[in-house]
Amino acid sequence: MTEVSEGSTTAAIRLAPSSGAGVADYIEILKPRVMSLVVFTGLVGLIVAPGRLHPVLAAVAVLCIAVGAGAAGAINMWYDRDIDALMRRTARRPLPAGRMLPGEALGFGAVLGVGAVLVMGLAANWVAAELLALTIGFYVFVYTIWLKRRTPQNIVIGGAAGAFPPIIGWAAATDDVGWGAIALFAIIFFWTPPHFWALSLYRTGDYKAAGVPMLPVISGQRETKRQMLLYTLALWPAAAAPWLLGLAGGLYAAGALLLSAAFTGSAIQVWRDDGERIARRMFAFSLWYLFLIFSLLLVDHTGGDWH
């Protein structure tokens, strides 16, 4: 509090609290590691779509997907700051660590989200903008606020938000949503549960301490591993769908087959081994799986002609 004397009157001026958050903190709440895969899958959806968008407008559309994903991440961190403080993996994030005020994160995320949707509509089309708005809303309201703390199926249903970026990219190029876009959505949708459950297997204590009903906490590790294996098997037809639809050729089909076999093999190893090391290895491989699947699709589609 600062006191200012003016004649016989003393006025008390309360200074608004300041968190002292730095640029690095604002970047961190955007979840840049998550954003990188989101941006890449959105870019692939835009490139493999049958429509065409001016390169500058395409770059703006991809930027809008990135900013929209970051906005959802910032609002997620605002809402989850209480449980983030209880988990070792997230306790040092800007909000639970006290480096940023809740209002700063919420305001930052809201402004970015609205801005991303408006710019997407103006630069590409309003179909893509509406899908971007739907994705942000789904991640914030359906996954973060409704599902995450209530059901072990939070990742299965809520994970749909992470599967929307290639559909948004496709819509930006075509002003529509086709079967090819839905196929790309399906790959990410079926990939998400085994990816996150692999993480939750070696972070069960964190989720239990925070009261988050992840599948290993509610149903145990054995049931989690069984469902992980089933989802990797469901990925086989999902990964083959772009080839079956004529969106990709033989190069992609062969690579998708090998990668899906390796992913299922990883799930079998997790099923057989109770060690934390195998679960960590599967989580790391799951990131490579998605990146390589979409990279194959991109290379197969362009035939090596990145122009």
CATH superfamily of the largest domain: UbiA prenyltransferase
- N-to-C order of helices and strands: EEHHHHHHHHHHHHHH
- What is the number of independent domains? 2
Mean pLDDT: 91
State which percent range the strand residues make up.
under 5%
* Corresponding CATH architecture of the largest domain: Orthogonal Bundle
Write the CATH fold name of the largest domain. Tetracycline Repressor, domain 2
Beginning-to-end CA distance, first to last residue: 60 Å
**Taking strands numbered 1, 2, ... along the chain, how are they ordered across the largest sheet?**
1-2
Largest sheet: 2 strands, antiparallel
Note down, in words, how this protein is organized.
The protein is mainly alpha-helical. The protein has two domains: 19-177, UbiA prenyltransferase (Tetracycline Repressor, domain 2, Orthogonal Bundle), CATH 1.10.357; 179-307. Helices cover 73% and strands 3% of the residues. It has helices spanning 23-28, 32-48, 55-79, 81-84, 102-123, 126-147, 154-158, 160-163, 165-174, 179-201, 204-210, 215-244, 250-272, 276-302; strands at 2-6, 9-13. Helix 2 runs antiparallel to helix 3 (55-79), helix 10 packs antiparallel against helix 14 and helix 12 packs antiparallel against helix 13. The chain starts with a strand and ends in a 5-residue tail after the last helix. Residues 1-18 have low confidence and may be disordered.
Strand-helix topology:
Layout: E1 2-6, E2 9-13, H1 23-28, H2 32-48, H3 55-79, H4 81-84, H5 102-123, H6 126-147, H7 154-158, H8 160-163, H9 165-174, H10 179-201, H11 204-210, H12 215-244, H13 250-272, H14 276-302
Antiparallel strand pairs: 1-2
Helix pairs in contact: 2-3, 2-9, 2-14, 3-5, 3-6, 3-9, 5-6, 6-9, 9-10, 10-12, 10-14, 12-13, 13-14
